[in-house]
């Protein structure tokens, strides 16, 4: 890789041991992907729940922080943590998990990282703009920022996103390059979803068809522009099922006003998706009507989702736990507007700053006896199978009804 | 010496020798593994129930979220990690995770590598030459010799 004078100095340790460590990591990755040089980035977003980090990851962070060298050079924020400290006992989380979280948070703060604890920073903190190079973690954040915002980011795992924060740059490969942003797969949908779970299911199907990080699906046939929440579920599921980092919606997303703008005129439509495909995906998860827990998470809920949820919870009395997870930025409004009160009076719980699957999901299942789980998040059902859950995908309305009845109708 | 050898476009890490687990499936440490037990745990995964510890995984593509970037490092710290991962197609997360976790990696072949490498075969992964090679029985390492190539490199268990 070509390095400029500043980068050479960082690699030589002239900017301290932390910047050197970060630069060495970035060069290793950059060489693997044959990056020619670095590109400056304006923001970094670090995924670092302690279930993923473990003791080893926390010690790695602490070692960087212990150097006392000043930390990040650009605005650097965090993905959800592994708990909501105020509700940890309700989740059955052990003291050692909370202690590990506290250590990670303390190390991040010493490194100058802003603990936003959100996977919807594009709705709540500062959305990246078209052409802006960023280093974002959380696949849902990356696919939304790339596709809806027109920003430029690869999936940056925690170590790489933090390295970008520490050096102010990232290797220039993948979705930082024009050549990777053209469509590679053309898909027509004959049906436009109406609920968030259907948007997620459609995204999951597109993700499965795409099937790898380097495919860029172009989707046409939608009847109207989706909302931010609809695109959030659509993109998060696509990224989860397919490891997809960028999609184009013809006539809707900023880089695809016309077919030719993303090379779609050179591609034949190879797949058609209809309502029956979405129903089939949802049905594939519906194996047991009984449920142990209802979860709304992945991604964290916006204030409008919480508003809809509160309306559905009003006057209900739940037989099963219902968890609604949002960001620390949204939670105060949720409280202020009375949504938290309505949801919790029905027997639900509003959690803040965490995400269900990033919060020791396997241990929660074992401690709380939660196995059969209903959710409106296609991303969550795709993830939780590996954690021993039987996740089922249904509308927000059906999930609330399931919390009330103990069964998914 | 075996001539059954395949060239990748991307490579990282140290030369390792080991036994393969092969599947035309995706891979994510978060989605597919029980990392405490060291086995594939996702019911739909073709390798479900099989131990990945010290194995060379030959898989189709990297899947899912960003957690694997930390998890390979955490798995390495407990000596519960594959010794190498070989993909038809890799994503950025798996490469970043391999860089931090010191896991050898090859990716990008002109053939479907999962159809070429037999499940359970002894192979050599050599990132310096960008190659994976199926070994003759005469080349198998003596007991304990291969383990030196997959030694623990990080912190406490």
Question: Span between N and C termini of chain B?
Answer: 37 Å
Question: At the fourth CATH level, what is the homologous superfamily of the largest domain in chain A?
Answer: Aconitase, domain 3
Q: Any idea what the CATH superfamily of chain B is called?
A: Phosphohistidine domain
CATH topology of chain B: Glucose Oxidase, domain 1
Unreliable stretches of chain A: none
> Order of strands across the biggest sheet of chain A?
12-11-10-13-14
Topology, number of strands of chain A = 14
Order of helices and strands of chain A: HHEEHEHHEHHEEHEHEEHEHEHHEHEHEH
Strand content of chain A: 5-15%
Q: Can you name the CATH architecture of chain B?
A: 3-Layer(bba) Sandwich
Q: What pair of chains forms the biggest interface?
A: A-B, 48 and 45 residues
Q: Compute the number of helices of chain B.
A: 4
Helix/strand/pairing category of chain A: alpha/beta
Q: What can you see in these coordinates?
A:
The complex is a heterodimer of chains A (409) and B (157). Chain A has 409 residues and is of the alpha/beta class. Chain A has helices spanning 5-11, 17-32, 50-66, 95-110, 121-124, 139-147, 158-167, 196-210, 228-242, 275-285, 303-313, 331-336, 339-345, 361-368, 378-384, 396-405; strands at 38-40, 44-46, 76-78, 135-136, 169-171, 185-189, 217-220, 248-249, 269-273, 293-301, 322-326, 348-352, 372-375, 390-393. Chain A folds into 3 domains: 5-178, 2-Layer Sandwich (Aconitase, domain 3), CATH 3.30.499; 182-282, no CATH class; 286-405, Aconitase, domain 3, CATH 3.30.499.10. Chain A is built from 16 helices and 14 strands. In chain A, helix 6 (139-147) packs across helix 9 (228-242) and helix 8 (196-210) crosses helix 10. The longest helix of chain A has 17 residues, at 50-66. Chain A is globular, with a radius of gyration of 21 Å. By secondary structure, chain B is of the alpha/beta class. Chain B has a single domain (5-150), classed as Glucose Oxidase, domain 1, CATH 3.50.30.10. Chain B is built from 4 helices and 11 strands; from the N terminus they run ββββαβββαβαβαββ. In chain B, a hairpin with a 4-residue loop joins strand 5 and strand 6. Chain B starts with a strand and ends in a 23-residue tail after the last strand. Classes of the chains: A alpha/beta (409), B alpha/beta (157). The interface between A and B is large, with 48 and 45 residues. Chain A: It holds the Pfam family AcnX.
